[in-house]
Write a structure and sequence with these properties.
Layout lengths: L7 E4 L3 H12 L4 E5 L7 H4 L12 H18 L7 E10 L13 E5 L11 E10 L1 H14 L3 E4 L14 E4 L11 E11 L6 E4 L6 E8 L2 E7 L1 E2 L8 H14 L8 E11 L4 E7 L2 E7 L5 H16 L1
Parallel strand pairs: 1-2, 1-7, 2-6, 3-9, 7-15
Antiparallel strand pairs: 3-5, 4-5, 8-11, 8-12, 8-13, 9-10, 10-11, 14-15
Helix pairs in contact: 1-4, 1-6, 3-6
Amino acid sequence: MSRRDLDALVIGAGVSGLTTAVCLAEAGMRVIIWTAEPPERTTSYAAGAMWGPYHVEPVDRVRVWSAQTLEVLRQLATDPQTGVRLVSGIEASRKPVDPPEWGSQLGGFRTCEVSELPDGFATGWRYTAPILDMPTYLGYLRGRLEAAGGGIEIRRIDSLDEVVGVAPVVVNCAGMGARDPELAPVRGQLVAVENPGITEFFSEDTGVSPDLLHFYPHGETVVLGGTAQPGEWNREPDPGIAAAIVARCAEIEPRLRGARVVELRVGLRPTRPFVRVEKRQFRSARMIHNYGHGGAGVSLSWGCAAQVVAGSG
Ligand SMILES: Cc1cc2nc3c(=O)[nH]c(=O)nc-3n(C[C@H](O)[C@H](O)[C@H](O)COP(=O)(O)OP(=O)(O)OC[C@H]3O[C@@H](n4cnc5c(N)ncnc54)[C@H](O)[C@@H]3O)c2cc1C
């Protein structure tokens, strides 16, 4: 595709950029992604990932984006090739807390008896939610983009001036690369291990804490988490943190103790007071921003992408 033929340029090949590019291409636009790094080097690759619009604002728009995304993920879960599964499990807290307001949207949502919870936990809910194996899922999105005529080029943008004249619509899905003073990283580390036979997820509602506890089964592997370290930019996995994550998860599920580690993953959650999905004119280009999804970018991805498409025409 020569540049003259392009309808839209998307910056970024994480879940936001890929989903947006798929939606634009399937709406009939000629789309290319420019990304500094390939999908397997993004924060999106590092995510767990489970649907759940935690700690993101503005609440009214998040409600719409997350509900739209939930509907699409449920459809995708009917095809195992996508990496999306509907998995049942328990979310629990050591303190009495209220259920999440979005819980009733999830299949089989009910309050647990204390006897169903691990020792030391006071409240919990059982539900069925979409869980995404992100390496597989990003590959699926890439294939779907290519099938719709789009493509990916590895190209870092140092200044927005570089995108002027490339396409009439430019969508900024650069995550932490969006260079917005309101963005701050919240480092997350996860450990993928061989699955010793776990079929249900577990997630602790830790409130705001640097040490998280959850595990999500993805067939052959289980992804164990995690951390939430505000202001940390280091993308190198820390073996000490990894050992602590495994130990925390093994207290809840002893079969995880000694499970063979397959991969350590690190990502920087692009956190902002409000998710930014907004249209602006930038010289000759219609610039649409789609970044700042914090710890919920997977859960908002299809809703935000639909809003970009609505603003692109
Ligand atoms: C450990 C962890 C667990 C998580 N778990 C969940 C979960 O369970 N559920 C959930 O919904 N969310 C979860 N998240 C959050 C989610 O991963 C993020 O919100 C989401 O990945 C953000 O996606 P993105 O596409 O906006 O950004 P990214 O995935 O960071 O992608 C940004 C893209 O922009 C490109 N880019 C950056 N700068 C430039 C530049 N100058 N030029 C060109 N390209 C550039 C990058 O190369 C990359 O391709 C988790 C995050 C972490 C770290």
